[in-house]
Amino acid sequence: MFTQFKNIDTAFSHIKRFSIGFLLCCTVLSGLVLWKSFSWVRESQGKIYILAGGKAVEVFASDRKDNVAVELRDHIKMFHYWFFTLDPDEKVIRANMAKALDLVDESGRKAYENLKERGFYNNLISANISQEITVDSIQLNLDVYPFLFRCYATQKLIRSSSTVFRKLVTQGQVRNVSRSDNNAHGFLIQRWETVENADSTQVVRP
User: What torsion, rounded to 10 degrees, do the Cα atoms 109, 110, 114, 116 define?
Assistant: First the structure.
């Protein structure tokens, strides 16, 4: 009888060790499944599908800090494009200025009002002058906030008799604001000023 009890104790001990081992394995396996599931969810959230030419193209989302320099340059470039791209048409000038002033603080509006008071836009319209701009380079300082920038660009003033190229240098600061339809990058230019704006070359048409 004692041998039978001994066998029962041994069997119970084996079952106990097996049960503990089984529970440990289940716990580890459950943890791995949860970890893998969260990893898949994070990866799927980082994927974006956009339509291009009628086809779904997969792109990957990234943190804003990874693209801040790229977004800043594009924001500054688009502001200068809308502010300095002008045609001898009052509606075009107003439409472009409205887009530009969404990207800048009162310093941009003040510059616009000063040009307007001096009759700059009326002169463009009366003389049928078109103005275009090409941004050559943008220097950024991301070590301070608000971010500092200096923009180097070339203006092109097109008249019926000639084309004048002007060297343009501006500078200012950029701070973060909420994104919107009118401000897709979520930046606002402030303390914007023109450092240099001088004729460089002139091409006279025969």
Answer: 20
pLDDT tens for residues 139-162?
999 999 999 999 999 999 998 888
CA distance 96 to 86: 8
Query: Which residue, chain included where needed, has tokens 């980082």?
Result: 46
Indicate whether 44 and 122 sit together in one domain.
no
Q: What is the pLDDT of residues 29-42, one digit of tens each?
A: 887 877 777 666 56
The answer to whether residues 104 and 192 touch, using CB atoms and an 8 Å cutoff, is yes
Tell me how many domains the chain contains: 2
Q: Which domain holds residue 21?
A: 2-48
- How far is it, in rounded angstroms, from Cα 134 to Cα 154? 5
From the centroid of its chain, how far is CA 52?
Answer: 20
